[in-house]
Design a protein that fits this description.
homodimer, 335 residues, alpha/beta, 434 Repressor (Amino-terminal Domain), Rossmann fold, 3 domains, 12 helices, 44% helix, DNA-binding
Chain lengths: 335, 335
Amino acid sequence: MTVTIYDVAREAGVSMATVSRVVNNNPNVKPQTRKKVFEAIERLGYRPNAVARGLASKKTTTVGVVIPDISNAIFAEVARGIEDIANMYRYNIILCNADKKKDKEISVINTLLEKQVDGLLFMGGTVTQEHILAFKSSSVPIVLCATTDDNNAIPAVDIDHEKAAFDAVQLLISNGHRNIGMISGTLQDPANGYARFQGYKRALEEAGIPVIDDHIRVGNYRYESGIEAMKYFINLADKPTAIFAATDEMAIGAIHTIQDANLRVPDDISVISVDNSRMASMVRPLLTTVAQPMYDIGAVSMRLLTKLMNKENVEVTKIVLPHEIIVRKSVAHVK
Amino acid sequence: MTVTIYDVAREAGVSMATVSRVVNNNPNVKPQTRKKVFEAIERLGYRPNAVARGLASKKTTTVGVVIPDISNAIFAEVARGIEDIANMYRYNIILCNADKKKDKEISVINTLLEKQVDGLLFMGGTVTQEHILAFKSSSVPIVLCATTDDNNAIPAVDIDHEKAAFDAVQLLISNGHRNIGMISGTLQDPANGYARFQGYKRALEEAGIPVIDDHIRVGNYRYESGIEAMKYFINLADKPTAIFAATDEMAIGAIHTIQDANLRVPDDISVISVDNSRMASMVRPLLTTVAQPMYDIGAVSMRLLTKLMNKENVEVTKIVLPHEIIVRKSVAHVK
DNA sequence: CTGTTAGCGCGTTCAT
DNA sequence: ATGAACGCGCTAACAG
């Protein structure tokens, strides 16, 4: 039924080793022989079996990607970066959603390892001891992607979330704002939640502005929770003159709430956030936000992984990509 | 180095066949033996090699997914549906972006087939003869996902794009609009472009409204092209009283352009579109749009594929999922 | 430059 | 219920 390397060999009148050589572009084949083999391949419609090749060579040219949720635009962008670079180096990607749930993460790591991936890209919640254990149970290279690792034991590429938040809030402060509300993500989330909150706090502290609980609301990254938080802020006696939101979506929720209350952005209240998703340039006013290079995070981590898989010597295994404030129209000087 | 089934056999004092049986849940093993084997597995940290298993069993429990662009929210949603169901049936997903480019599509189909995937989910541009040829070159089941196939030769699941557009435009007409502009996608795209335009046309024709070229602009699905198209419409002598946009993004571009011209949505101009992306509920006014069940398209096509891979008899192989108009705030009765 | 020969790790008869 | 032996399709020495 299926045509194998052996059939080709017979058809071309050579040995299977020779067929293997031409298929794998080994230079040690006479051009004429090569031609004969190619013709036989063509005639028989031979297609190499990558599984057999994987078993014999102990390489699958496949890498596993653990991702929280591919339907989340942020991660999808990372995934595209990963796939583009993988493709460039002739790797394929096995994609697994794990929703930042530890059990699911450990589980997919194991099935990925069973599938003999040549490398692993991990994007998830916190990296626990259990994760490390699962990683160490095999010798395939791993790189953490947009994921923090307290133990700092594994190669990783990410941005500096704390600094990103710090910079955003500092922009507000440099515009004269001193009454700044924060719409945070859950503080349990080390990167998008806790770190950004820390940046907010540090920016205030360095400016000598007291951090008060009433100016902090915790949301769930989504539009609706931005609305909810903003409704709260608007009813405050000392209403903030500026809002720092941990995500664009929450920022947009805040903007709409402000506008619905017949206040203006940025004239009455300024808004800044972090993400720079497509939506940031699809609101009125255009949203000032700090851009995270998500595509690049994916691309760079995949590139790092190729080096690791290639057993190249990589000195720096902790890569922090730069972020950038995209100044648009949602921040103004305080009145 | 790596511990194999053979090592486990020795450690447990049984044959490798027995180990294979317990690993694969074959009932023909004495409980006591099973226990011994499990203990040996635990002790040695044995992890089955899926590649070797794939070679021996001719099954990889892996399916290939060809997708236009995972960083596009619409497709990412489909992908999540696919992965969830795949996961449920213990399949893994190899994900390949092909950007709707024919050559790239054919190329990834072939590498996926080389990897011996048990099935293929294809999401792309048009399905040409060359695609069919590539599909037919192997006997693995294929299902088309959100992709039209003129030849109608391959199992597929999609929505009725023409009808979706028709319904949207009809809602406009039933609100008294007779001067309706369309912001279309490229007409070369059979589903999102051409079919939606056809639906627009048919709705007008059935209402006895002439279809005039001046009321049709072709965009590229994006926000910016919605802006551009709307600028054109606004300067028209007989300005449309309603706009049908082929995507939410273009619709939002139109809305903002209308508002920037100091006109109101929907009081002055109504806007409707199709997609029901998250953004539809993140604009003011909230966007009325027809919802496509993208997650379901992914889930249903993956489910169909599992049946096909399982050699179950499936009668209907052309599944059309229902769409639904989500009425929000961007459409009003004509003044 | 080419062919021979072993495995790679596992599923699967076929015996027992 | 268990074991022996073969083969899945290919790569990788090694020999010539």
